[in-house]
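Student: Send me a single protein entry containing the residue sequence and its fold in token form, directly below this note:

Tutor:
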Amino acid sequence: MKSKTTSLIILRCSLAFIGFSWFAGCGKQLGSTGKIYDAEVVAEAAKLTAVKDPVQEEIYAFRLKTRPAYNTRRFNDLEAQASEIRTGKQKFGNGSWKISEFYDSLACRSDEPEGMWQLHDRIHKDWIVAKPNSITARLAYADFLTEYAWHARGSGFADTVTAEGSRLMMERLSEARKITDQARELPEKDPVLWRVVLRIALGQGWPKADYDALVDEATAFEPKFWNYDTSRAYSLLPRWHGKEGDWEAYAEEASKRPSGLGPEIYARIVIHLRGYHENIFRETKVSWPKTREGLDQIIKTCPASLDILNNAAMLATMAEDRDFAKACFARIGDVYLSNIWEGPEQMIHCRQWSETGKW
């Protein structure tokens, strides 16, 4: 008879995210995350080289270059940079828009003390005073206030939010909405405006009709700015303002939008929401064939992105598509991304399954 300790270990082995015989035949060695793997898996995992996605490193360098101008209030430099990348609709090698990354580079870290958040607030106000007709200054401030609002709320479920946190959140979201309304009246337009308003809508709990009208307005302005659709799909999770099947139906609808990204947007939505499920293909109504078609499209247009390729390998494993998973792993090679996999052993475990069909 197995001891209680052994039974507990076996039980824990069964709780990984794939959801289908994930740890069948648990071995005798602990992996880097403390889970038990076959000795061969552990040995193969040790041969992997930990790397970073070259595209993400390029984005990080871009942010590091942008941030000093903000910290030192060099508003002319910020205005010139934003105008150039906005006008040219420039993108990074993973398909992300540089104008989105520009605003993200100005963010205040969530673990910063309140005094730092207040310093950011003053910088943004100084920017608007210096550039009263700038859409960049206003969107940067609205984006900050929206993040500041969610910071006040906290990241927990609704029953963990304090009365003061809720008050500050609504107050800051209201102010952010006023600023985006002002930005709408300016002659220059920026696709990030609707990205910010979509997040305001999520926090304020807009009615579906108003939310849908906002998405229609956004996608009419820039149909290939995929942050709109990932944001709207997220808002349709049951934890927010949707019910079962809503976000999957939205993904299908978005993929059929004229002048849009087609299957690519479907796959981007699935990638974006993957982390909210143990196995997204078992727990939702999302289509693997449609996701695979979109992943094929993204991989072809973004060949330098290791993040996308690793996400594709993981999703193919979840969908039990050995051929697609095997092809992805072959392209990945013996490198490992810690931001995608739970540990190098998990990646090897999936790769071996794609090659042998055995767990």
User: Anything to note?
Assistant: The radius of gyration is 22 Å.
